[in-house]
Amino acid sequence: xxxxxxxxxxxxxxxxxxxxxxxxxxxxxxxxxxxxxxxxxxxxxxxxxxxxxxxxxxxxxxxxxxxxxxxxxxxxxxxxxxxxxxxxxxxxxxxxxxxxxxxxxxxxxxxxxxxxxxxxxxxxxxxxxxxxxxxxxxx
Length: 139
Hints:
- This protein is α/β, with parallel strands linked by helices.
- The chain has one domain: Nucleotidyltransferase, domain 5, CATH 3.30.420.140.
- Helices cover 47% and strands 26% of the residues.
- The chain has a 5-stranded mixed beta sheet, sandwiched between helices.
- Helix 3 crosses helix 4.
- One of its GO terms (molecular function) is nuclease activity.
- Residues 1-102 form the YqgF/RNase H-like domain.
C-alpha cells in the first residue's frame, strides 16, 4: 500500500511517497500555495491516481509540550477537508522537529543553502512519513 505524506506550510506543501511496500519514504515534490485550494486539491488527486495512493498522512505541528496551537488547528481543518474531498483515509502524524531533522540530513550531505531551501519541505515530508512507516512497521 502506497502512502502519501503532506508537510503543510503557509507557502508550500511538501509531498513524500512511500514505496509500494510501505518501507521507505522519498520526497516527491513541493506545491506552491497561492491561495487556490482547488488547484492544490487537483494536483494531490493527480498524484494519488498516478501512484495509486491508498492513504494520506498529514504532518501535525504540535507544540513541544504536546499541545495544539493555531498551526495544528489549520492542519486538522485541512485533514477534514481532504477526508471529504478525497474519499481516502487521512491521518495526522506528529511532525515535531521534522524540519530540523531534514535540515540536518541536507547539511550532512553538504547541500548548498540555496538547494536546501528548494527541497527542505519535501525532505521534511519524507522525514514525517518515514517516522510514520517505522512506527507502523510489521517487521
